[in-house]
Amino acid sequence: MAILAPIAASIWYVPFRLSRLMKLEQAWRLYVAVAVTVLLSFTGMAAFATFSKPVLDTLATAAGLIFYVHIMLTILLLVLDAFRLLIHIPDKMGAWLAVGVAILLTIIGGWQASTLNVEIVEIPIVGLQEDVTIIHISDTHIGMYRGRSCLDRIVRETNRLNPDLVLITGDLVDGNSALEPGVLSPLSELNAPTYFTTGNHEGYIDTERALEIITSHGICILHNEVVEIHGLQLVGLDYMKADENAIPTREANRFTIKEELPKIPLLEEKPVILMHHSPVGLEYVTAKGVDLMLSGHTHAGQAFPATLFTPFVFPLNKGLYKKDNTYFFVSQGAGTFGPRIRLGSSNEINLMRLKAQD
User: Fold this and answer.
1) Are strands 220-221 and 165-169 parallel, antiparallel or unpaired?
2) Residues 192, 164 contacting (CB under 8 angstroms)
3) Rounded Cα–Cα distance for residues 197 and 211 (Å)
4) Which of 7, 41, 241, 278 could be a cystine partner for 63, CB 3.0 to 4.6 Å?
5) Interatomic CA distance for residues 156 and 48, integer angstroms
6) With 80 as the cut, is the pLDDT of residue 6 above it?
7) What pLDDT was estimated at residue 251?
8) Could you tell me which of 82, 101, 81 has the C-alpha nearest to residue 91?
9) DSSP string of 60-109?
10) What's residue 29's pLDDT?
11) Rounded to whole angstroms, how far apart are CA atoms 230 and 226?
12) Distances from the Cα of 10 to the Cαs of 3, 16, 81, 169, 355, in angstroms?
């Protein structure tokens, strides 16, 4: 409900400022047009995105873009009002400038959300006997706004890079439409051993059915356990809180990293890679002697203005970090949550070259 108040305020503010700047005589028409457009786009994003039909997916995407234009226009008009205290900007010029820039930024954001980048990272791993190449995939969000074609593109790009391992750290699916026949079929085409851990969005849907389908495509799901492969100890944790002090969420299970990670038996002589959807519990991860933790979840804020705030919510927001002897890598995600908008971040899969080091 907290999001509804600023949306309601913006529905009043945008036509109020535009009608004043443009000197409109019948401003009520603009008020009605803005209110109807914003409300239809806001409800359309949710209503159409629950289906996997191409036409409805297109409508959901269009609704999201229209809604983002409104968000950017609200911000730009606020900025314009601030600048007008310092310099003179003709009213109509300022209004059209705000509208034009809002549309332009939305087009850029939509284009950014349609691209897929490969982020290449090299990490030295002590005790590794030979180099290992990993593709790390997180936050594809198949089901709402993104369907089989998106997953097929990610799989083809992954196979082209010829990794030794593929590691998927949650939010693979987002909506029960992802569980319809054939949507997740591209997973069967992955050419390397693939391991998966759950994210928070797997908890929003028919979780048991989702995991059954993922497993049926040859993906190994790690539930708070370890496997040995390519000289690595690969640990996978279900989506969970860091400890008992973390804010509870309905999709997180009752376990915590603080409780579960110490229970997993590990060999001191072999390096450890940990998969967990959210980049939390750092102190427990380093205490366990993990060499590299892979996460996602943050989307690096995905789109302005959220990109300004995620570093305060998640100190490990995107990219590579190191604490003590542990590396942490946080992916920006291969897909988007909600509308297909990326502004100030990018869709990515991560090519991770683990380099053997004595």
Assistant:
1) unpaired
2) yes
3) 10
4) 41
5) 28
6) yes
7) 55
8) 81
9) HHHHHHHHHHHHHHHHHHHHHHHHTTTS---HHHHHHHHHHHHHHHHHHH
10) 92
11) 13
12) 11, 9, 14, 36, 51
Retrieve residue 280's tokens. Answer: 């939390």
Whole-angstrom Cα distance, residue 77 to residue 130? 56
List phi, psi (to 5°) of 226.
-130, 145
* Average pLDDT, integer, range 108-129: 95
Q: If you average pLDDT over residues 317-338, what whole number do you get?
A: 95
Give the Cβ contact number of residue 136 at 10 Å.
27
Report the distance separating Cα 212 and Cα 178, nearest Å.
Answer: 13
CB 142 within 8 A of CB 337: no
Whether residue 115 contacts residue 346, with contact meaning beta carbons closer than 8 Å, is answered with: yes
103 vs 72: CA distance, rounded Å: 8
**DSSP strand pairing (292-295 vs 326-330):** parallel
How is 273-292 classified by DSSP, letter by letter?
A: EEE-SSS--HHHHHHTT-SE
pLDDT at 51: 59
DSSP states of 229-295 = ETTEEEEE--S-BSSTTSPP-TTS-S-BHHHHGGGS---TTS-EEEE-SSS--HHHHHHTT-SEEEE
Given this model, what pLDDT does residue 205 score? 87
112 with 133: CB under 8 angstroms? Answer: no
Domains assigned to the chain: 4-114 (no CATH), 118-357 (3.60.21.10)
Look up the pTM and report it: 0.92
* Per-residue CA distances from 65 to 3, 175, 231, 302, 323 (Å): 18, 20, 46, 14, 39
* 351 closest CA partner among 118, 178, 184: 118
Overall size of the chain counted in residues: 358
> How far is it, in rounded angstroms, from Cα 60 to Cα 54?
10
